[in-house]
Write a structure and sequence with these properties.
Elements: H1 17-41, H2 44-53, H3 56-75, H4 79-104, H5 119-125, H6 134-156, H7 161-180, H8 182-190, H9 203-221, H10 234-249, E1 261-267, E2 280-281, H11 287-295, E3 297-302, H12 310-319, H13 337-340, H14 346-352, E4 356-361, H15 370-377, E5 381-383, H16 393-397, H17 401-406, E6 409-410, E7 413-414, H18 416-430, E8 436-441, E9 461-462, H19 467-495, E10 501-507, H20 521-524, H21 537-543, E11 545-552, E12 568-569, H22 573-580, H23 587-596, E13 599-602, E14 607-609, H24 624-642, H25 657-660
Parallel strand pairs: 1-8, 1-10, 3-12, 4-5, 4-8
Antiparallel strand pairs: 2-9, 3-11, 6-7, 10-11, 13-14
Helix pairs in contact: 1-2, 1-3, 1-4, 1-6, 3-4, 3-7, 3-9, 4-6, 7-8, 11-19, 18-19
Length: 661
C-alpha cells in the first residue's frame, strides 16, 4: 500500500500546470473572440475567418482575454471562475453593441455603460427590436463549451497555491504592460492597424479594425489626435480675454420687450422623408410642416447622433455644451448634475425671467431618469405618460386611467396628436398667470419600425427597396406624417391666440432604419455603405441632419423673413431661442453666440461653416481671425468644465487692475 502524504495532489496531475493553464486560457480567449464576432456580425463566415485566420486582431484579442482569465483564474485558483466572469462581460458587451448597432447604426461607447442602471427601461422601449437569432444562439453555445473546457482544465491543471498566486500576478503585470500602458498598446497593436493616436476616425471604424472589445478598450487607453491646444501664456491669455470681450461687444443688441410664450417640440426621428433618393410619394406626408416652414424660418438641423441619443440632444440644446470643444468625445447625458449646472440652462433663464416651465413626454421616465436633473435645470413641472390626469380632465375622470390612455395609442406608443392636446390644455391653464415655456417630446415615431407597426398606411411610395425595407420605411413615413399633423394642430391653436407665441420644432435625429436581413434602408438607397466603418464625411453629413422650423403668430419675432432658410444645430438652437425671446446673455451664452456667427455645426464627424458646406475641420476652411474664436472657445470650455489651466467664461468680463488703474 502507498501512503498519501497530507497536501499531495489527488488524481492525475500535470507536470507543467502553469503552461497548460495558460494554453487553455489563450485557446478559450480565441474561441470567445470568435463568439463575440458571431454576435456582432451575425456571420458564421466572419467568425470562422477570425478563428482560423490568426490575424493580429484575433491574436491580440485572444491574448487580452487569455491574460485576464489567467490573472483571475490563478488568483482565485479556478480558471473556470475567471473564464465565467470574462465570458459574461464579453457577452454583455457584444450583445449590447449588436443591439445598439441594429437599432441605431451606432456602436457601443464607453459612456453607454452609465446607462446600465436603466437597462430595464431601454429594453421596454425597444422590446420589439431585441430578437435572438440562430447566430446569437450558436455564439452562446460556443461560450458555454468554452466554460465546460475551462471547468475540466481547472481540475486538471490547477497549480499549487504559491505557484498560482505568482502566475496570477505575472499575468496581471503582463496584461498591464501590453494593454494598459498607452504607449505600449499603441506601438505593438493599435498603430499597426491604423487606430493609433494619430487617427481621429469614429468609434465604428476602430471597432471594424480592432473588434468590439479592443475598439472599446482603445477609447480608454489611446487618445485620438487633435489640433494643438496650447495652454496660453499670461500675455496670450490677456489677449485672448480681450478678443473675447471685443467679439461679444460686437454682437447685436438683444431686444427686450413683451415676453413671448415659447413652445419647443422635439419630433422623435422627424426628417423630410420626401428627400430620400429613389423614393417617390403619391402624396406629401408633411404638408403641415411645410406650411410652418412657409410661415416661419426653417433649415437643416445638424445633430450628433443617428437613431438614438434623444436626451443627449436635449441637453446639448438646453445647455449649449458642445463636446467637440473638449479634447475627447463625451456624451453629456452621463455627466453629474453639478457639472451640467455649471452654466444656466435655457430653461433656468426662462424660469428666472418669470416664466412657468414644464416638460411633457409621452413615455415613462425609466431610461434617463430625467425628473431630478431636469427640475434642477429649471423645469417646474414634469409630465410623463402616467401624469396626464393632472392636465387632462377626461383622464382624471376616467374610471381606470390606463384604459383611457390605451385609447391614445398609435403605432405602439402614445400618439403625437394626444401630446399636442395635453400641451394646449396645459398652456391654457397656465398662460393667464404669466408667460410659459413648454417642452414637449414626442415618442410615436420611435423605433422599432416594421411593416405591422400601423394598421394601415396613408402615404404609399414607389421605390426599388426590398419588401422588408418598404415595411420599415412605411412605418417611418406614417410616424413622420403623424408628427407633422400634430404640429399643424398646435399651429392652428396658437394662430388664434392674441399673446405672442414662438414654436420651435425640430427632429432630434434620423431613425436608424436597420434591416434584419442586414444593412439599412439608407444602404439600400445607396446613401451610405452597409458597413458604418466605411462611411465618409459626406455620409455622416447627410445622415446626421434633420429639419427644424421656428414659427410665430407674430412675424416680428422670427429671426428672418417668413419662408427664409437658415441652418442650425443641437448646440445652437437653444441659444437662438434665447435671443428671439429677448433674454440677456451672460458670458457663456455670449461666447456661444460668437461661435454661432462663424459656424452652423461642429461634430466629431464634420464641421459646417456658417452658410457653408460640411468639411472635416474648421482648421481647414476658416481664416485665422475666425479660428481664434474656435481656439478661444476650446480654452474656455476645457477650463470651465474640466478644470484645465487657462481662463474660463467668467474671466471674460472680470475687472483687472489694469482696467481700474
Amino acid at each position: 500500500h502507498t501512503m498519501k502524504l497530507p497536501g499531495a495532489r489527488r488524481g492525475p496531475g500535470c507536470e507543467h500546470p502553469i503552461v497548460c493553464s495558460a494554453a487553455a486560457a489563450f485557446a478559450a480567449g480565441l474561441l470567445l473572440c470568435a463568439a463575440s464576432e458571431l454576435i456582432t456580425t451575425q456571420s458564421f463566415r466572419a467568425a470562422a475567418a477570425l478563428l482560423f485566420g490568426f490575424s493580429p486582431r484575433a491574436v491580440a484579442t485572444a491574448a487580452f482575454l487569455g491574460l485576464l482569465i489567467c490573472a483571475l483564474g490563478f488568483l482565485c485558483r479556478s480558471l473556470f471562475a475567471g473564464g465565467l466572469l470574462i465570458s459574461l462581460a464579453l457577452a454583455g458587451i457584444s450583445f449590447a453593441n449588436y443591439y445598439k448597432m441594429l437599432i441605431t447604426s451606432t456602436p457601443l461607447y464607453v459612456q453607454d455603460i452609465r446607462l446600465l442602471g436603466q437597462v430595464g427601461g431601454i429594453m421596454e422601449l425597444n422590446s420589439a427590436s431585441l430578437k435572438f437569432s440562430w447566430a446569437s444562439g450558436a455564439a452562446v453555445a460556443v461560450m458555454l463549451l468554452v466554460l465546460v473546457g475551462l471547468f475540466f482544465a481547472s481540475r486538471r491543471f490547477r497549480p499549487r497555491l504559491l505557484q498560482g498566486l505568482a502566475a496570477g500576478i505575472a499575468a496581471a503585470l503582463l496584461f498591464a504592460g501590453l494593454f494598459c500602458l498607452p504607449g505600449s498598446a499603441e506601438a505593438w497593436f493599435y498603430a499597426p492597424l491604423g487606430s493609433g493616436s494619430e487617427s481621429s476616425e469614429p468609434q465604428t471604424v476602430h471597432n471594424s479594425r480592432c473588434g468590439v472589445l479592443l475598439g472599446l478598450w482603445r477609447s480608454i487607453v489611446v487618445s485620438s489626435a487633435e489640433e494643438e491646444l496650447a495652454i496660453p501664456e499670461p500675455d496670450e491669455e490677456e489677449l485672448l480675454l480681450q478678443s473675447a470681450r471685443e467679439w461679444i461687444e460686437a454682437l447685436p443688441e438683444t431686444e427686450t420687450g413683451e415676453k413671448p410664450n415659447v413652445v419647443f417640440v422635439l419630433g422623435e426621428s422627424f426628417f423630410d422623408v420626401t428627400e430620400l433618393p429613389g423614393v417617390s410619394y403619391a402624396e406629401d406626408p408633411i404638408t403641415d410642416f411645410r406650411r410652418a416652414c412657409a410661415e416661419g424660418v426653417s433649415g437643416k438641423f445638424y445633430t450628433h447622433t443617428l437613431g438614438y441619443g434623444t436626451e443627449n440632444i436635449e441637453l446639448e440644446l438646453l445647455t449649449g455644451i458642445n463636446s467637440r470643444f473638449f479634447s475627447f468625445d463625451d456624451m453629456i447625458y452621463g455627466w453629474e448634475q453639478d457639472e451640467l449646472l455649471t452654466v444656466d440652462s435655457v430653461v433656468r433663464q426662462f424660469a428666472d425671467a418669470g416664466y412657468y416651465t414644464a416638460y411633457l413626454h409621452t413615455f415613462n421616465d425609466g431610461i434617463y431618469n430625467r425628473t431630478e436633473l431636469y427640475k434642477a435645470l429649471g423645469f417646474q413641472d414634469m409630465f410623463f405618460s402616467g401624469d396626464f390626469a393632472a392636465i387632462d380632465p377626461e383622464a382624471a375622470a376616467a374610471s381606470y386611467y390606463w384604459s383611457y390612455m390605451n385609447t391614445k395609442l398609435s403605432g405602439q406608443y402614445y400618439s403625437d396628436d394626444y401630446l399636442a392636446d395635453v400641451t394646449t390644455m396645459l398652456y391654457e391653464q397656465k398662460v393667464e398667470e404669466g408667460p410659459v415655456f413648454l417642452w414637449m417630446a414626442t415618442v410615436e415615431n420611435h423605433t422599432p419600425f416594421y411593416a405591422e407597426k400601423y394598421d394601415s398606411y396613408e402615404f404609399p411610395f414607389e421605390s426599388e427597396l426590398s419588401q422588408e425595407a418598404v415595411g420599415v420605411l412605411n412605418a417611418v413615413s406614417q410616424g413622420v406624417a403623424n408628427c407633422s399633423e400634430a404640429l399643424g394642430k398646435l399651429l392652428d391653436f396658437f394662430s388664434e391666440r392674441e399673446e405672442p407665441v414662438i414654436v420651435v420644432f425640430f427632429g432630434d435625429h434620423r431613425p436608424g432604419m436597420p434591416l434584419e436581413s442586414g444593412g439599412t434602408v439608407y444602404s439600400e438607397l445607396g446613401m451610405a455603405p452597409e458597413n458604418v466603418a466605411d462611411w465618409t464625411l459626406e455620409n455622416y453629413a447627410e445622415l446626421y441632419v434633420t429639419d427644424y422650423v421656428i414659427w410665430s403668430n407674430d412675424p416680428s419675432l422670427l429671426p428672418a423673413e417668413p419662408g427664409s432658410r437658415m441652418n442650425s444645430s443641437s448646440t445652437l438652437l437653444g441659444l437662438e431661442t434665447l435671443q428671439l425671446a429677448g433674454m440677456e446673455l451672460d458670458e457663456y451664452w455670449s461666447m456661444c453666440a460668437v461661435v454661432d456667427t462663424i459656424s452652423d455645426a461642429w461634430t466629431w464627424n464634420f464641421f459646417v461653416p456658417q452658410g457653408g458646406e460640411p468639411c472635416y475641420s474648421p482648421f481647414s476652411v476658416l481664416p485665422n481671425d475666425e479660428l481664434d474664436i474656435i481656439r478661444a472657445m476650446r480654452v474656455f470650455m476645457n477650463s470651465t468644465f474640466y478644470g484645465a489651466e487657462g481662463p474660463d467664461f467668467w474671466d471674460i468680463f472680470a475687472v483687472t487692475d489694469k482696467d481700474t488703474g
